[in-house]
Each structure stands twice: as structure tokens, then as C-alpha cells.
Known about the structure:
By secondary structure, this protein is an alpha/beta fold. It has helices at about 10-20, 110-125, 160-165, 180-190, 230-240, 260-270; strands spanning about 40-45, 65-70, 80-85, 90-95, 150, 170-175, 195-200, 215-220, 250-255, 270-275, 290-295.
Amino acid sequence: MPALGGKDIFRRLREEAAATGKTGGGCKGKPMDDASVSYVAVRRGHENQQATLIDGKTQEKEGDQFFFQQEQKVDLEATLSSREVATDVGPIIVLEDPQGAWAAGNGATVWDSALLLSEFLQRELRPCMIPGGTNQANARGLLHPSMRALELGAGTGLVGMVLAKLGMEVVLTERPLALPLLQRNVDENRLSTAQVHALTWGEPFLGAAWAQEPFDVVVGSDLIFPNNSECHALLVETLAAVVRPTTWCWVAYEPREQATDTSFLGLLQRKFDVERLAPDCLPENAPSDLWLLRLHRKLSS
């Protein structure tokens, strides 16, 4: 993987985001910067047949694969920008949406903290990926490829796809608006162990088929921003529903505003013991202004 401190890896996207105000995350609500865009679900292979307007609802049907397109005639594929991210087991192609054509800029780009978390998780898995090795917990007692993982607010899906590429069974979740690009990225990388599902923070989901088995690993990157503060308590509620005392949970995060950071950490601490990983625990050249939090579920909460 390229050095994490490189200009092309870090800083570029946060500068673009500051200029556009575009964000992501799994909170219910309208797009941040264009609520007038509507989408239709179209079954693959039947692109000229209009299906039901989604109006904020995901369209899922057993046996059918749907993607979403705007009602107006836009060549969505032509709006995508391809980026290659190196991993220990081969490259991952990430299709980004710099024009915001797929979901008005929601879940459209790879954020710095996703790159940091992806590199960190690869390092925790490396002892298990040595040729001839076994899928047993490594010497640090952390991750192994046979685990089951959940990514919250997956966006373009980089973190979850890294785990799937390394052999884990992964469920990548996003709010319905951002699902089309997320599914497109998983399809592009032909990841047979990755599933994409809708999850809006704070709404019931434990009855869904994909949530019946517990998750060994729960991850998320750049899930909160000052302008989605109404979602922070819902995110903590969702984390508390899926993270058990034995679950490995990491949240990568770029602090942006002290009041937001303080409030969110306070919400987390009601349900979790929160540990910020020290710089010597992070990948080499990781920027000092990015946080990687390890969440330990409190037994009494």
C-alpha cells in the first residue's frame, strides 16, 4: 500500500469535502446538498424498464440484483472515477463519484480515515496471510480471516472490501440512498464473501437475515461530522446493538470541531470504554490528526 502520508492519499479529499460540504454516513434523512434528486430501481439486464421510485426506501427482492439510477437520463458509469488501492493480496478498485451524480455526493469518495483503518486492519491480519499458514488468531490475539465482519456507513466500501479480500465474510451497510455505488464497488471487485445491505442508524435491523449471526469485527470510518450531529446518538445505539464484549470494534475518525468531538465521545462512553490508539500502534507515517478508536463494550450498559 502506498505510504499513508503521501499527498495523494491524505489531505486531498478533506480539502475537497471542505469546499463541497459533501459527507456520508448511515443516518436517516435527505441528501446533504440536493434533496430534489429522485432515483428509480432497475433490475440488471432490464435497464430500460423503470421500477418503483425508492423515495428513501431500499428495494430488495430475493434473487434479484437492483441498482439505482436517477430519473433524468444520466450516464452514471461515465461519472465514475477509478482508484486503485494496493493490499497484501492484490489491488482493490474503488469507483468514486466526484460529480455527486449517484447520490448527491453521499458516500461518494474514499476518506482519509478509511485508508488508515484499511492499512491498520491489514497489519493485524498479516501473520495469518503468510503462505502455508493457518486461519488461526495471530500472535497479537486479534484478527483471523474466518471471522465475520460488519462495516457501518461504508460509503464506497474500501474498509469492508479489504476485509473481504483478506477472506472474511463481510456485511457492508449504508443508508438506502448510498447503496447503488457501494454495490457497484463490490461488484467491480467480484468479492464473493461481501454482502451489501441497507442500514439506517437507530432503526430496527436485528431481525434481518444478514444480522442473525453475531459479528466478530465491527468497523467504521469517518462516520460523524458537525453537520450530522443529530445522528450521533443513533450511531451509538446501533453500535451498542452489534458490539458484544468479545467483539473487536474500531472507529477511524478525523476530528473537525471540538464541540462535536466532545459530544460524540461522551455518547460513546455511556456504552463503551473508548481507547484512542497511540501513534506507535498505527501504520507508519499515519497523520497525527487522525484518530483510531478501539471500543470495548461495557458489561453493565
